[in-house]
Amino acid sequence: MAESYSDGRTADDEFQEQFLNDKTLKFAGAAVATLFTLVVGLFIGAIIFTQVDFGLFVEIIYPQFVNAYLLVLGIFLAGSVLSIIAGIFVGLGRVSKTRVTNTVASGYVEFFRGTPLLFQLIVIFFGIPAFWPPGEFPIQNWAIPAAIIGLTLNHAAYVGEAVRGGINAVPEGQMEAARSLGMSYVQSMREVVLPQAWRNALAAIGNDQVILVKDTSLLTVIAVPELISAFRQINSATFDPWTPILLVAIAYLGITLPLGKVVRYLEARSDWGGDR
Amino acid sequence: MSLLEFDKVDKFFGDTHVLKDVDLNVEEGEVCVIIGPSGSGKSTLLRCANRLEEIQDGEIRLDNQSISDPNADINRLRQRIGMVFQSFNLFPHKTALENVTLAPTKVKGLDESTAEKRAESLLDRVGLSAQSNSYPNQLSGGQQQRVAIARALAMDPRVMLFDEVTSALDPELVGEVLDVMQGLAEEGMTMLVVTHEMGFAREVGDRIVLMADGRVVEDSPPEVFFENPTTDRGKQFLSKLL
């Protein structure tokens, strides 16, 4: 039990005032951050100076890593555009008052969120060709379309949930005001509700699209020559892990960091006179 | 035949009977003010008039065309019924001008420049020509509500519905909105107004309709209602105001 002082304060209060005030906490935070930066910096520095072979680094950048990077970028862009478009429809289905639409949209979301993306990719890549007679499916050209289909179907479920949340956050009066002017449900959705829902959902959609970029690493399993496949090839040929690892890291961040900027730009653009 | 007719209208929310056999006729050019205690069904009656709420029995007609018929072309009928809401409901992602031009361009198919010219004259009429490029959250409540009135007028409605349009305003901003409404009334607009502003009701209203418990309990000219109400319910309501 804390010892009691005559003015009613306890030893705990005393301790808090001495050591846990704003100033000491601020200092502690800065100290931890500095230490963290130092340790990480030293670690990366040590890797670059002791592990990375710059001759190999330059040799493998082109064409292997540039090609893998461009392929991942292309698959991401296709998957991103398609999953956002499909996700808007999934979200509209989720808020629909029509029973069958709503049930189908919910089932879609439950399935694609409830099973692993890797499983879904396997189903598409190995499962679909089985419907063709043996040898007749153009399997050598199937990996990239299968990848884009899988990423789109999976992320449309997550985008759909973000869109649903975004729509539900738009006050009901917006739809009523639009309808009272004689606009149809579709017009009201398109002109009034969705632009506001989009802004509400933007952060969540952006977050999901960053995950989509990273999910392309799973495509190594269906023989897409993406960044992890490039690493495995170089590593097995040279037994050098850190040189290709460094390139893989640069390549992923070379997509995700600009993507973050794009999301922030889009958020700033829908400011509508400030205040929110 | 009246312009807007409520014919034995019944409305339920679940088991709650909120409108009971309501008969009400609004004549062309008339300002009909609906007053009454909260929960008496005034706002619901108004919302039924452009089918934001469905009725369970009876009929509502505009120009002798049924609004409540499930097969009615409601988007077409709503163009002739302007509505202004307590909470403004301006579109926050559009400027004042764009709020006013949206429905005329999308619903009536007006071209941008015609719609903008008309919107500018409407914003001028509600005293907001200087604010046409402002977004709603850059405007005061009174300004927002005046934009909402201009937005409803842009569809050239036959009748305007006002649903407690000053209840969400700071007291010093109420006057500017009521002035706009009074101007409209003087120009001969048919108006159905739900309000707690008794001064406005008395001065601008042609008729005072008192509702209580989902029924119309008194329907008199303002000079009669405010001097010498004909029903006990009217007397009771009035005594609480004083």
TrEMBL record, chain A:
It holds the Pfam family BPD_transp_1. SUPFAM superfamilies: MetI-like. GO terms for cellular component: ATP-binding cassette (ABC) transporter complex. It is a multi-pass membrane protein. One of its GO terms (molecular function) is transmembrane transporter activity. GO terms for biological process: amino acid transport. The keyword rRNA-binding does not apply. It is found in: Cell membrane. Belongs to the binding-protein-dependent transport system permease family. HisMQ subfamily. This is ABC transporter permease subunit. It comes from Haloferax marinum.
UniProtKB/TrEMBL annotation, chain B:
InterPro entries: AAA+_ATPase, ABC_ATPase_HisP-typ, ABC_transporter-like_ATP-bd, ABC_transporter-like_CS, MetN_ABC_transporter-like, P-loop_NTPase. Pfam families: ABC_tran (PF00005). It comes from Haloferax marinum. Residues 4-238 form the ABC transporter domain. One of its GO terms (molecular function) is ABC-type amino acid transporter activity. It comes from the Archaea. It is found in: Cell membrane. This is ATP-binding cassette domain-containing protein. Keywords: Amino-acid transport, ATP-binding, Cell membrane, Membrane, Nucleotide-binding, Transport.
